[in-house]
Amino acid sequence: MTVVDDHPAILSGVRAWYAEADQPVRVVAAGTSVDVAWTPPGDRADVVVLDLNVGDREAPYQREVRRLVDAGRKVVVYTMQDSEEVALTCLDLGVSAFLTKTEGDEHLVAATIAAASSRPYLPPTLAGAIAADHRPARPRLSDREREVLTQWFQCESKQLVAERMRITPRTVDTYLDRVRVKYANAGRRAPTKAALLARAIQDGLVGLDEL
């Protein structure tokens, strides 16, 4: 993974947290500019932990986040910004998780490991932002689409969903694609599993007790 933060002390601390974790995380590159994520060895990292304050302060953070997500990188935002609007915007852009720096090492390590495994992670700040979100345009899902969606959130792979539901992995993909299309048509893109989980919780399609 790659860590991008504008403060050297934060970089050192985050490196130490990952090294001392029960499930150690390998940091292949770290730096104060997002450029480190695009040059070797940073460009080979699947997960990028990103501080929204790095780089040109006049440039919107959305540009760099979208660029990373569009390139297939799993982005974990780790920032001092605790705005609900910023958190939801980052989800809209497809980040794997959004954390504030007050949430510390426990949540950052867990969110990073979850992102690396393509699993959603819901730290307190993000959960609060989702709970406070009352935006309209909720797509109407069929019972079968909701069932597949819930099973996918509970499983680590689509193959496991297929085995549980006695359908093919291709059929699982078809249902999930339909759900994503419905959200996209409603103006609320959900390109990642984490973003789709956020949408489902926002709209009451799944509850935390079901996960």
TrEMBL record:
Statement: the UniProt record of this protein carries the keyword Transcription: yes
Coiled-coil region: none
UniProt keyword list: DNA-binding, Phosphoprotein, Transcription, Transcription regulation
InterPro entries assigned to the protein according to its UniProt record, in alphabetical order: CheY-like_superfamily, Sig_transdc_resp-reg_C-effctor, Sig_transdc_resp-reg_receiver, Tscrpt_reg_LuxR_C, WalR-like, WH-like_DNA-bd_sf
Any one Pfam family match given in the protein's UniProt record, by short name: Response_reg
All copies of domain Response regulatory, residue ranges: 1-116
Domain of life, source organism: Bacteria
Residue numbers carrying 4-aspartylphosphate: 51
Protein name: LuxR family transcriptional regulator
